[in-house]
């Protein structure tokens, strides 16, 4: 029974239509879940037929054809400032706009002819309140045909790690899927117009008139990046340590560095009973768990508004009584150590779901920890990492945060958030380890290396932001909005990524060369010396 001769639903990672090729998913539960009967739609059939009979199919056809024809025609006419075509629409008889149905599949191009990834389109559409579908739409044959993907291309994509539902929307310069919009009887002309305005605003590069000349939107987007002026008062303003992945951290005036970054930073994580790793994206309540480390007492203290007792955890790993095991996370293999039932029950109460606390203890093993970083998941392949997503450090500039708040305030004055609504974000919304002050806004983008006090760091580039920064934790409640990501997307988008802050790697070998084996500490107030060469 386990050796199925067919596949359906989400049980495969990849399939190719013109050859006998299918790559099944690895997890046994994923392999056997062929989808669920659409019982909600079944129960709605009677009501759906009533609507169709009331409106009549001919009226629905006229209505949806008109909307789709308007959108399709407008998309085909869009041009960048250099005359390059913006939109490629897929399907047969595209020239006969009025004979086509209410579904439009397409991809978008930049002025230089490169493609916008469909994930980027989906991400920005979500911020604009627009729902659309992306990918191959469970139709691998049509996907390969219209995207011009040969069998060799598809096999190459699979070898590169491409699977259904992942974020690899562009591989080897070609799109791996498309964007699809659909219209129904409930769609309005305002919906269609809003979608066109979204495409024009987010993806079409047009000239802006400034004085007697003009400057393209592309140049405006990069304004403020890479300035050469360095303020003399550039210094470290704040240090924050996050002992438990996705939980709240604590600020310090002085903290030690080691070869994984800040000492004890993201050295613990919380895992569910099914093996899934808890993050704020899955469990927003993790933000309400507060942590602090007392180095003198050698303890990690953890508090939660849901727990009456403050939890105490010894920093000495030898005092932990849990078993050791291996853990796969973000393409890396870790050795971890668990805790007793008392600790795990505390976190289960704090998060209202069964879970367990694990601590990274790979340094105690003689075998090296392997690092197999997946594309767009882990850019730091040269350093030892605790349970971080991309790099040892995230650095944010106070001036960049101020510039962002100025833009948010400007949007509020224009009435974009409703009467009397104003949005202000704190630097801690971005969960930085280091906050600097005294620089020009976004000056950090151009830094290649920097020193803080006596510590040397290498910049790994900008940090790609997601909708997590739109979560606001005021008064113990989780509130979600479109900001500040929507505003950042309007001027901080670079090839599908919305960048804010920079990722750093601590060059411990350089510090050992300069100062021997003495422990290196970061202190608030230390001078920051960037190197852009």
Automatic annotation (TrEMBL):
Alphabetized SUPFAM superfamilies for the sequence: MOSC N-terminal domain-like, PK beta-barrel domain-like, PLP-dependent transferases
Residue ranges occupied by any MOSC domain in the UniProt entry: 358-533
A Gene Ontology BP annotation from the UniProt entry: monocarboxylic acid metabolic process
Signal sequence interval, chain numbering: none
GO molecular function, one term: catalytic activity
Name the record gives this protein: Molybdenum cofactor sulfurase
Source organism: Acorus calamus
